[in-house]
Amino acid sequence: MDQEFTVLENTAIGRNISMYRKVRGLKAFDIAEQLEMKEQTYLKYERGETQITVDFVQKAADVLNVDPLMLLAVSPNHIIDSGNNSPNAVLNMIHSSYTYNTADEKQTELISRLIETQIAMNEKILKLLDKK
After folding, report:
1. Does 88 lie in the same domain as 67?
2. What is the rounded average pLDDT of the residues 63-91?
3. Final residue belonging to a domain, choices 38, 57, 76
4. Alpha-carbon torsion 91, 92, 98, 103, what sign?
């Protein structure tokens, strides 16, 4: 039986899924099609309107080619504690104890850039490992 997340976590996880999708340059329709569901159904997951299960997180992570923990790791109560674009900033963001009331456009842009950097580094690491 799948574990379900709370409504607050649904919103945060949905936001993460949406952010990774956008970083990958994919449309909601593309992801929905790969998940074998209608676009409107998929968008309800992104908005946190549909109960998100561990199974859905795994499937979405597979389609987005990201570690499922990255979709679960960032909660809406954490922000980035450094303004640099280093891969370690993502870890700092996850473990940060700073809180905020609302996310502004600048924070969203910075998070997107950090995720892009992390994805690029992961891809380079995978290529290096494949060569071995």
Report:
1. no
2. 58
3. 76
4. negative
Token pair belonging to 32: 């929905």
What's the pLDDT tens digit per position in 26-58?
A: 999 999 999 999 999 999 999 989 998 888 999
Q: What number of other Cβ atoms are within 10 A of residue 103's Cβ?
A: 12
Q: Count the residues in the chain.
A: 132
Q: What is the pLDDT of residue 77?
A: 42
Residue 4 phi/psi, 5-degree rounding, is -110, 155
69 contact partners, CB below 8 Å, separation of at least 6: none
CB neighbours (10 Å) of residue 100?
11
* Domain co-membership, 1 together with 44: yes
User: What is the extent of the structural domain holding 13?
Assistant: 1-76
108/26 Cα distance (integer angstroms): 17
Provide the 3-class DSSP secondary structure of residue 53.
strand
Structure tokens at 81: 């504690």
Do residue 50 and residue 13 come from a single domain? yes
Rounded to whole angstroms, the Cα distance separating 103 from 111 reads 11
Final residue in a domain of this structure, among 76, 104, 123: 76
